[in-house]
Write a structure and sequence with these properties.
314 residues, mainly alpha, MetI-like fold, 13 helices, elongated, BP-dependent_transpt_permease, transport
């Protein structure tokens, strides 16, 4: 009986002679971006804000998917009429009519285009401009850092809204691109400061010192070693600032200095509706609510990205 047990046990044990167990595959190195993405996918705030931003982008690119009503077509018989018509889906006026009898729902949908384009273009422009200036100042230091920092301080001392009022007054016709130019010319300073501080911290790392010792050129060090490791704070600030630029554009249009007719803008509609806030509050509520929801979506996404990119906050 013991011999039988020994034979069965030996049959279960694989032969060890002349063979070796396969070595386990090494785990793939994880980067900060992959870790951040895994963290973001589990955050409800990020998912909600991403869904809202996706809807806004689709609304910007294809407003016809949301309404077929002409936002500029007015009928004075519908002057501030608050009883919407739901007879045809996506053709009805869900939010009532403005002072010229135009569909408020259609204008809210089409107004997303100007705001989103201004926000994205200004954010991209100030990130490139400020990031480039901040990287030069932080990496080279010395007199170049002093010069660029003083220039940044001069522009930083100009209030963004007041400066844009002065710049836009120089344009005879104020379009989306003139607003983008004004906001970019005065809004790059924050990105420059953030990038400069991040580059100063990163350039003292051991891998940068090793790259210099191995003879890597300045361009390679800045693009391959400095930029990928210094860009995270800039991404966070840019995401949050995008909502701020959208709000600034609406404020300028509300004051009559930003976008002008025939461009459709939430700020223009808010300006028109402020006079009848007591008699027709719905004309003010819907464009202002859409503006607030848009700004909130980008701020929520910026907060989620900040928490995901900062290991200390996980």
């Amino acid at each position: 009986m013991p011999d039988l047990i020994e034979k069965k046990t030996a049959a279960k044990i694989p032969a060890q002679s002349g063979s070796s167990a396969p070595a386990p595959k090494p785990e793939k190195a994880r980067s900060l971006g992959s870790d951040a993405w895994d963290d973001l996918r589990r955050r409800p705030i990020f998912l909600i804000s991403a869904a809202l931003i996706l809807v806004l982008i689709v609304m910007t690119v294809a407003p016809g998917l949301f309404t077929s009503v002409d936002p500029r077509a007015g009928d004075l018989r519908n002057h501030y009429l608050s009883h919407p018509n739901y007879s045809h889906l996506f053709q009805a006026d869900w939010f009532g009519y403005d002072g010229q009898g135009r569909s408020i729902y259609a204008r809210v949908v089409h107004g997303a285009r100007a705001s989103i384009i201004v926000g994205i273009c200004v954010t991209a422009a100030v990130t490139l401009t400020g990031g480039f200036i901040g990287m030069l100042a932080g990496y080279f230091g010395g007199w170049l850092d002093t010069l660029l920092s003083r220039v940044t301080d001069i522009f930083f001392g100009i209030p963004l809204l007041l400066g844009c009022l002065v710049v836009l007054n120089a344009f005879t016709e104020r379009t989306v691109w003139s607003v983008v130019f004004a906001l970019t010319a005065l809004g790059w300073t924050q990105m420059a400061r953030v990038m400069r501080g991040s580059v100063i911290t990163v350039k003292q790392a051991d891998y940068v010192t090793a790259a210099k010792a191995l003879g890597a050129g300045t361009g390679r060090i800045m693009l391959k070693h400095i930029l990928p490791n210094a860009i995270a704070p800039v991404i966070v600030v840019a995401t949050i600032a995008l909502g701020g630029y959208i709000a600034t554009e609406a404020t300028l249009s509300f004051l009559g200095i930003g976008l002008q007719d025939p461009t459709i803008s939430w700020g223009i509609d808010i300006n028109s509706a402020q006079k009848v806030i007591r008699t027709a509050p719905f004309a003010l509520f819907f464009p202002a609510g859409m503006l607030s929801l848009t700004v909130l979506a980008f701020i929520m996404m910026g907060d989620a990205v900040r928490d995901a990119l900062d290991p200390k906050l996980r």
